[in-house]
Known about the structure:
By secondary structure, the chain is an alpha+beta fold. Helices cover 16% and strands 40% of the residues. Strands 1, 2, 3, 4, 5, 6, 7, 8, 9, 10, 11 and 12 form a twelve-stranded antiparallel beta sheet that branches.
Amino acid sequence: MPPGIYGIVLTRNKMTNIFTKEFTISSYDLNPRGQARLTSMANFFQEVAYHHASELGLGYHDMKSRKTTWVLSRMRIQMKRYPAWNDRIKLETWPSGAERLFALRDFRVYDSSGEVIGMASTAWLILDLDTHRLVRPKEMLEQFKLIVHEERMFDKALDKITVSDDAKLLNKHPVVFSDLDIVGHVNNVRYMEWCIDAVTTAENSALEIRELEINFNHEALFGDLIHISGIESENGETYFTATREGDGLEIFSARLKRDKAT
């Protein structure tokens, strides 16, 4: 289970299909500043998405029984402020529509006083496990008569992240057993950790991650060696691309924005 799972399901607004769940920040969610890591927040987002999908009849086991599965393709997280140890936070999530082959889901994070401290948006694909072809999410939404709450957390769509050919090799990461998820692929939060670790030094470790956007392009498997390259843009953001040694296939691309801690 992801970190900090001391959640209590509060409610689901059936009129808008907004699902709400609370989490308590645990000691193992924390960074050295005593705040929740961005990757802990990413785990929370995916956990609450799983619970909502299960309630809607579209969870992991439901999809598997229909020989399909959800594949997270794109994710963008923006944090105004990070919760601290023992803080209680509330997450809202809702299906926010479909675009081409993507099913969209958005998130909002509240602190205990009701202030919005973070948000996220995700784009998911539906994969047919027998044919390995993609299923159009619109058909699934119509079949289950799902109510779509069309509020989006970001004005700009989750587009493809393109990284300059000038990106320099930062690290090489062999995929080890602890990187793997329930289906035997690298857990997508691990990719985020690899990016953060590749550019964090003793000199810049005080910088706080404000935003991370990532495209999950291909799966990485046990034993793969992943080359992580990066380049800093003119506005100070870092762009990453990760390729598999041997065939050069791009596993993910990402964008990271950091600034001084508040």
